[in-house]
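#lab-general

N.A. 3:47 PM
ok so I finally got the sequence cleaned up, no stray characters, all 173 residues accounted for. can someone with queue access submit it? mine expired

B.Y. 3:52 PM
send it over

N.A. 3:53 PM
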Amino acid sequence: MESSDAPDARLTAFGSQLVEVHDRLRGELARLSDDVDAYLDGGTRPRDLRAHCLAFCAALERHHTGEDAGAFPALAERHPELAPTLDKLREDHWLVSGILRRLQELAGGLGPETGDPREAQRVRGELDGLMAIVESHFRYEERSIVEALDALNVPEWAGAPPAFLRAGTPTTP
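B.Y. 4:20 PM
back already:
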C-alpha cells in the first residue's frame, strides 16, 4: 500500500485492515485452541483459559456486529451487486453467533474451581466447528468484499476506525 497524507489514502486501507483483523482473530483462535489441546493432553489448564475464551468470543462478535451495522450497509448502498454476497456473510454471522453462545456457556465450566476435562472436550468440539466456519467465512469475505471496501469513501470513517475494524482482544499483545 502506498503511503500518503492524502485523505483518500486512508480510505483505501479498509480492505487491508479487514484482512489484518481477520489475521489477528485467526491467531487468537489458534492460541485458544492450543490452550485447550494442551489441557486435554494432560497439561495444566492455563489460568486464563476461561477469560481467553470469553474475550475471543466477545471480540469476534463485536467484529461481526460492526460489519452488519456499518460495513455491509455502506457496501450495499454503493455496490448493490454485492447484495447476495452480503446476505451470505450475514447468514454466516448468525451461524457463528450461535456457536459463540454455546462456547461462552461451556466456558463457564473452565473456571479455576472446576477441573473436569469433559468440559474442555466440549469446548474443543465447539472450537473445531468454529474454526472451520470462521476460516471459510473469512476467506470468502476477503475474496468477495476487500476490493469494494478499499474503494469505499465513507467520510465518517476517516477520523477513527469503524467498529468492524476494532476487534482486538485483551489478550492480543
